[in-house]
Amino acid sequence: MRKEDKALIIEKIVNTLGEYNCFYLTDTTGMNAEQTSALRRACNKAEVKMVVVKNTLLQKALEQLEGDYSELYPALAGTTAMMFSNVGNAPAKTIKEFRKGGSEMPVLKAAYVEETFYMGADQLDTLASIKSKNELIADVIALLQSPAKNVVSALQSSGNKLHGILETLSNK
């Protein structure tokens, strides 16, 4: 590969990394074309972008970014497919769902989510359980609405009791 081509690919990887909040490094070694196509379809459905990259070019792209990504360098061995997403748990859920079909692939090598590094396949369950920004906002809103709903409910039930008492007294 020519040096100019490598520079273009590195620039493309850097641009793609800039577009997404998180990325996963996975190993797809041993997957046939049918399985790889099925994984790509699952990724598209979950709004996850999947790209197979060359490890050396990815490392050079990570070196160009702000911040220290050196923790990920040991994971850059063998076949590497990157999964990009703006929702931190979407790739993990996609991998778990895909593996329910009986496949042990893809294997999680590492992930960068919410400015945190996750190393190794044993982190998949942890990543899948991370709540997205929208899920956290929904939880906060639900918590804020709960006391107000309780007050309104108490006022309504008290009003009904008071009305019942007054009606009973008026009938006597």
Lay out the secondary structure.
Blueprint (H helix, E strand, L loop, with lengths): L2 H17 L2 E6 L5 H13 L3 E5 L1 H10 L15 E6 L4 H10 L7 E7 L2 E4 L4 H6 L3 H39 L1
Helix pairs in contact: 1-3, 2-4
How would you explain this protein's 3D organization?
The structure is a single chain. By secondary structure, the protein is α+β, with helices and mostly antiparallel strands. It folds into 2 domains: 3-130, Ribosomal protein L10, N-terminal RNA-binding domain (Alpha-Beta Plaits); 131-172. The protein has helices at residues 3-19, 33-45, 55-64, 90-99, 124-129, 133-171, and strands spanning 22-27, 49-53, 80-85, 107-113, 116-119. It has a 5-stranded antiparallel beta sheet. The protein is elongated. It starts with a helix and ends with a helix.
List the keywords:
single chain, 172 residues, alpha+beta, Alpha-Beta Plaits
Number of helices: 6
Q: Quick one: CATH class of the largest domain?
A: Alpha Beta
The averaged pLDDT comes out at: 82
Uncertain residue segments: none
Structural class: alpha+beta
Question: In summary, what is this structure?
Answer:
This protein is of the alpha+beta class. It has two domains: 3-130, 2-Layer Sandwich (Alpha-Beta Plaits), CATH 3.30.70.1730; 131-172. The protein is 55% helix and 16% strand.
